[in-house]
Structure formats: structure tokens, C-alpha cells
From TrEMBL:
HAMAP family for this protein: DNA_HJ_migration_RuvA
Protein name: Holliday junction branch migration complex subunit RuvA
Entries under NCBIfam families matching the protein: ruvA (TIGR00084)
Family matches, as Pfam families: HHH_5, RuvA_C, RuvA_N
Main location: cytoplasm
Length: 191
């Protein structure tokens, strides 16, 4: 419902901030990774949001990056993991660290997050496997270009799973543009 807020930062009280958007003050809960990136009070800020409606509350969660919001959304899909726990995980681990822990199935990293026990950590690792953009078949230390990321997201938006999208990306030239890359990937997937 509310996907993004842009306005003036009025207050910072971890983990909550108050954001003034044209005279309306929004209380937004943010992970500490986002909190540390916020400007000083009185400055303009833009946050991606996730809106949660419960029987007793309506809560906005804010994120500095799309990756953080996507990780948050994957976390809250897991049985027994609510928005507060997901916020705690993203406050204790960066999205990259979480993705690495998931790809290596390393419970030790997850257990270090306050409020996460061994059973919950194991469930997180199991449920998130293949969903955080980690198992993409990239060699260790390799990074994917923005164009390749955009191509993969487009393929997934068209209904292809992450494994198929990644396989199609491997066949593309490294310097391909987004439009051409999507066309070539769709041709490869159609075979």
C-alpha cells in the first residue's frame, strides 16, 4: 500500500524515526543498517517501505535499499518470524552477510542475532535457501553487473524461477545491455 516515503527527518529514536511528508508525520521502524545511513534531523530522506496491518496496529517499516526490503519480505514469510524478528535479523546482519550465511548454511552467524535461537536459525537457513539471490552460480568473490541484476529481476517478474533465470544469465555475453539481455535470455529459455 505505502511503498516509499520521501520527506524531512524529524526525529531519530532507534529503531523508530519520525518522517514528515508534506505535513503528515509517519512513524517508521527501520533496521539499524538503515538507521546508520540516515542524515541528520531536519534533512530530506527517502525510504522504501513495507506496511504491516495487524488487528491491533498498523506499522510502517523503512529500508534504505531494495535488497534490505526484499530480505525483510522473505524473512516475514517464514513461519514463526514476524516483522520484529526480521528487523532484528537485518539489524544484526547485513543483507550480504545474511545471504552468505544462507548459501553456506552457517547457523553460527544467525544465532548471534539477539532473539534468534538455534532452531529458528536452522529454519531461517532452510527457508531462505535459494531466495536471497545467493545461489546464483557465481564464483566466490565475483560480482554481477547492474545490467545482469536487472535482467534477472525482469525474468523473475515474468514468472521464471531464480534457477532458470540464473542459467539463462550464464549464457549471455558479459557486456550485454538490459534490453538485449532480456531478449536473448527469453530466447534461451524458450528452447
Amino acid at each position: 500500500m505505502i511503498g516509499k516515503l520521501t520527506g524531512t527527518l524529524l526525529e531519530k529514536n532507534p529503531p523508530q524515526i519520525l518522517l514528515d511528508c508534506h505535513g503528515v508525520g509517519y512513524e517508521v521502524d527501520v533496521p539499524m543498517s538503515t538507521f546508520y545511513l540516515l542524515p541528520a534531523s531536519g534533512d530530506k530522506v527517502s525510504l522504501l517501505t513495507h506496511f504491516v496491518v495487524r488487528e491491533d496496529a498498523q506499522i510502517l517499516y523503512g529500508f534504505a535499499t531494495t535488497a534490505e526490503r526484499d530480505a525483510f519480505r522473505q524473512l516475514i514469510k517464514i513461519s514463526g518470524v514476524g516483522p520484529r524478528t526480521a528487523l532484528s535479523v537485518l539489524s544484526g546482519l547485513s543483507v550480504t552477510d545474511l545471504a552468505q550465511a544462507v548459501s553456506t548454511q552457517e547457523t553460527g552467524r544467525i544465532v548471534k542475532v539477539p532473539g534468534i535461537g538455534k532452531k529458528t536459525a536452522e529454519r531461517l537457513l532452510l527457508e531462505l535457501k535459494g531466495k536471497l539471490g545467493v545461489d546464483l552460480g557465481l564464483p566466490a568473490g565475483a560480482t554481477r553487473s547492474d545490467a545482469q541484476t536487472d535482467i534477472q529481476q525482469a525474468l523473475m517478474a515474468l514468472g521464471y524461477n531464480e534457477k532458470d533465470a540464473s542459467a539463462a544469465l550464464k549464457a549471455l555475453p558479459a557486456d550485454v545491455g538490459v534490453t538485449d539481455g532480456i531478449k536473448l535470455a527469453l530466447k534461451a529459455l524458450a528452447k
